[in-house]
Amino acid sequence: MKIHSILIVDDDENDQFICEYTIRKFDASIRVIKAFDGAEALDILHRETPDAIILDINMPVMNGFEFLDRYAEEFEVHAPVVAMLTSSHLGKDRERAMQYSFVKSYFEKPLQADHLRTMADLLGA
């Protein structure tokens, strides 16, 4: 299935740039929405539901795990694919993230076209 919109949640402008660049190369028609922390992402999600969310773990204001907790509490309908994209190599972070039913993937930075293909395949599943 085609990805129409992706919300990137990452506090690092360079990482956001790399994500957007990779998404544009993968499919220039995908609408990219950006948030710099979990709180900003929640505000956006009260207005719209993207097809996918790419979420970092380590962020100020509200980190990725705090976001996942609030997202699970506040929303009955979740984005079809939530993917963690992080520099964390810790197995415990991966296990914790994958406990949420709506988290479908866990990738290590940087975002790659293969990650986007996996997300598109998950949308079609």
TrEMBL record:
Protein name, entry field: Response regulator
Domain Response regulatory: from-to ranges: 5-124
Gene3D superfamilies: 3.40.50.2300
One Pfam family it belongs to: Response_reg
Biological process (GO), any one: phosphorelay signal transduction system
This protein's record includes keyword Transcription: yes
Keyword terms: Phosphoprotein, Transcription, Transcription regulation
Keyword Transcription regulation part of the UniProt annotation: yes
Sites bearing 4-aspartylphosphate, chain numbering: 56
Superkingdom field: Bacteria
Organism: Shinella kummerowiae
